[in-house]
Amino acid sequence: MTPLAVASLALVIAVLGWSLYNFSVLLVGLLRGRRLRASEAGPDEDRLPSVSLLIPAKNEERTLPRLLEALLSVEYPRERLEVVVVEDGSKDGTVRVCEEFMERHPGFISLVRKASSEGKPSSLNYALQRVAGDIVGVFDADSVPEPDVLLRVGRHFADSRVVAVQGVTRSINSAWNMLTRLLSREEEAWFRVFLRGKDDLGLFVPLTGSCQFIRREVLEEVGGWDSGSLAEDCEMAARFLSLGHTVRYAEDVRSWHESPSRIRALVGQRTRWFRGYMETFLRYGRLLRRPSWRNLDAEVTLMGPYLMVASSWLYVVWLLSALGLVELGVLPAWFTGVFQVLTAFALFVIGVALYLSVGSGGLRSLVWIPFIYLYWALLTVIATRAFLQMVLRRPSRWVRTEKDGVATRSLSSMRP
Q: pTM of the prediction?
């Protein structure tokens, strides 16, 4: 067997093992459902924690007004809530939007401006020094939280053992085009199936950047967000895990946001995410020195982009072998079959998750399976791009994902 054949076989086994492992988590999320651990009654109003909401904003004049309007309708005692917009070097009318809201609703929000733009985690750290809430929440500027989101957050933090809560984000522009439809279905499966399964099994739940809530004292204890990370949310969750803290998934804490509507925006977003995950995987490999299912699951989660790169490599090897351009020794007799079974299995897992998680789609969700296959191929290419950037030591820059301020759902229809 040639060295290329040995390497390809090892990658097939790794990707297959990773797929089987994630399938087991998906299966738990599908079959067990969600048992909310927070009491619906919740704490009395006078016992609700004070909340500081941080909104990092750079060039967000099209999306920020929608978020601020939604926050005006949030059901929470005003004396226990502060909203801080962190303006980070905007070139558009973001500051003007904030000033207009501050004038119309005095005392509702405050505006903090940074002298230089250094990315989202740096903005969050800058604002963290200026807030006093017991709980620090983060919403991206394109978010539209549901009115009861903070009351539900308060119920979860009534349990003193809860350090951080990750809520659900759903697509506000899912019907805009084919890409947003596909991304909205992917997100439904991620939150309503995969993270649900992880939380039910007591595994690693990553933070996802928006609709996330953390105890301020713990944030200050760990030194805030990592300004050098391209996935500051997931890095924070991994850091919590290394210190013995855990993040809880809260399916009843919901917000809406914009999915990328253009391929270019998607490539930029996922390149940043994948590189951030890969760098965090290397940084927290020490978790395996203290073996536990949660630590192992964290590393399996963080290594996902590496397995995507492996899948991309296997596509290339399979194609070259089929064309007779490379020799794999004794492997070709069954390598093609294994590879095809692996691909079909991954497609089956994703298709079933989407079909069962998006109840309103019904059988029509199955029509999306061929597009899911193409989307997966695109993701493997993007992961390879991120991997090469990391290997070649290209400078890492935190680049925001462009949003258009469009919505295909009205605010009044955003309750499930």
A: 0.89
